[in-house]
Amino acid sequence: MFRQLPLRAQRTFIAASRANCEVSSDLQSLEQLEAIHCECLAQATPEQRAQDEHWPADLS
Question: How far apart (Å, rounded) are the C-alpha atoms in residues 14 and 60?
Fold first, then answer.
């Protein structure tokens, strides 16, 4: 399901998970989400990657 989200939604989900004190303590899950995001980014079109690169740095 996470892989089907747009790249920006994936980053938003990861940032929200980091900000949540209960979820952020599960480092393994966060690392898995970040790895999935990297895989999706590697398979993304140039347009999708460009949109992801313009995402605010403070949310990454």
Answer: 8
Of 15-19, 21-25, 56-60, the poorest mean pLDDT is in 56-60
The Cα 9–Cα 37 span in angstroms is: 10
CA distance linking residue 13 with residue 5, whole number of Å: 10
* Cα gap 16→59, rounded to integer Å: 9
Which residue do the tokens 């990657």 mark? 49
**pTM confidence score:** 0.80
Q: Which amino acid is at 38?
A: C
Q: Position of tokens 């998970």?
A: 17
| Greater model confidence, 31 or 50 | 31
Helices (H), 1-60: 7-19, 21-24, 27-43, 46-53
